Amino acid sequence: MLSILIGLILLLALAYLGWSIIWVAPLAAGVVALLSGLDVYTAYTDTYMEGLVGFVKKWFPIFLLGAVFGKLMEETGAARAVAKKVTQLIGGKRAILGVLIASALLTYGGVSLFVVVFAVYPIALELFREANVTRKLLVPTFALGAFTFTMTSMPGTPQIQNLIPMDYYNTTPTAGPVIGIVTTLIMAVGGYAWLAYREKKLSAKGEGFVQQEKAGASTSDEAASTPNWLLSLVPLIVVVVLLNVVKLEPIYALILGVVSIMLINAKDYKKFVFSINEGAKGSVMAILNTSAAVGFGAVIAIVPAFDNITEWLLNVSDNPLVAQSLAIQIMAMITGSASGGMGIALSTLGDTFYNLSQTTGIDPEVFHRMAAVASGASILPNNGALLTLLAVTGLTHKETYKDVFVVALVIPTIAVIAGIIMGGIGLV
């Protein structure tokens, strides 16, 4: 048990310091294996690599197509067009709400979380400047709009966190619609209420918009031509409808989404090769970061003491939804990745939870939805998406994490509790 604890602390500490999980994860796994009396070489070459490769084999097509789709949306200006129109409709004085809705719309349409940040940031910066809202609230606003409810709880979202549970529970992207809608409202309304409160409080203290002192993301996107926003919406609608109405496999939905972008923006064909290449490169790094964490989990799973942890999780409550949610949330916190934490937990306990769904009478759709929601209620300072967001905005943990903690960890955790209660009384 101590070896697992030391390995987890090492992984968390090094990730917090900004070291790449691609090599930190096998290092921490080696420490766990060494302290547990396992053969370190075998644990790495067999167990760790099998866990890593297994995740890549299953999910690389989704990561690849999702990244290409997002990059095409970014490079053609389609993502910028949608974001700009949303913020115009909302109004310049409601900067936080405009950025929140724009981020949520793009994320729910299938655009990568990271691409959403780059696409919306220049517009968000201008909106915050016009409304004189402190830049400190940029990060929690993005975190709420892109890293919470549209990523995990909204039924039908094509984000990977909502697709992973499908294989374990034989479900669809719209699994657990009632629980999904309620947890979405908790996160969206609760998070926005907090940000509105913080805006008023900071404004009363005289904290308004201050021009950034160091370079973050480029704000020169406005110089580029912006396509028609209605046409730019079409690829997002294509992915969501094909995935949830037509019930196509995610791979086919994303392929047709990519094709629709290229057809609508045919005049920008010169950007296609660059976009596809860059999307492909980005997908490799994204899936390696996640699968590295899954490989670490695979090593933990063969440590004899892991049976004790599993037994504790399974017996922590009479409600198996509590065990599943806690396991996924803890692993997502440790690895700094919602999909990585979910991959670790479900790869080791997914079959057990599915069997429990059959014996307890709790619908597998409930397990699916709660797995997704719990994975997102995990944003600690070492979270990979948060670190990227801080780099883009030029802000720091000290300036922003208090509000990120509330909107992306505390309120989503409340949503998890609410979802568990609903699932326990038979709501789906």
Q: Percent helix among the residues? A: over 70%
Main sheet specs: none
Using only CA atoms, what is the Rg? Answer: 21 Å
User: How much of the polypeptide forms β-strand, as a percent range?
Assistant: under 5%
Low-confidence stretches: 214-223
Q: Report the average pLDDT across residues.
A: 88
What is the tally of helical segments? 19
Count the strands?
0
Based on secondary structure, the structural category is mainly alpha
Distance between the termini: 36 Å
What number of domains? 1
GO molecular function: gluconate transmembrane transporter activity
Protein name: H+/gluconate symporter-like permease
Organism: Planococcus koreensis
InterPro entries: Glcn_transporter
